[in-house]
Amino acid sequence: xxxxxxxxxxxxxxxxxxxxxxxxxxxxxxxxxxxxxxxxxxxxxxxxxxxxxxxxxxxxxxxxxxxxxxxxxxxxxxxxxxxxxxxxxxxxxxxxxxxxxxxxxxxxxxxxxxxxxxxxxxxxxxxxxxxxxxxxxxxxxxxxxxxxxxxxxxxxxxxxxxxxxxxxxxxxxxxxxxxxxx
Length: 182
Description:
By secondary structure, the protein is mostly beta strands. The protein contains 3 helices and 14 strands.
């Protein structure tokens, strides 16, 4: 695996190191020792899977507070999505900055989103499926979200979303008193 730093401290795009022959290829998606050597979290308690039927489906921007804060490793296994992360760590040099990358079944890249980041994605093809490793159990009372088009952050989505859940449509603009306090 190659851990390619993003402009946001502690966040990486992970590229697979494929070993190819006439049969195809083999690659590790996760290796505890390689993640640890890169200074990344190695404990994951859930593997989540999502399917978005329509192109232009937006999911996000989600995160959890405090002890329930999650590290996520996201991979697209069918179709293509634009994966977005937003640094919400108080005191971080990149607080309020976002980064996005195209993840697809074909490029096999993964996004590593550290604890304290909001995460979301927009599907660029119909029937796009993603799976992600998560380092903390879901805690509804500590769940938060930021509106996908909050002008404070101006996340540069590649397209206008066409499908948004009611929950995501009703997310608040950023307010530190609510978004960062448990």
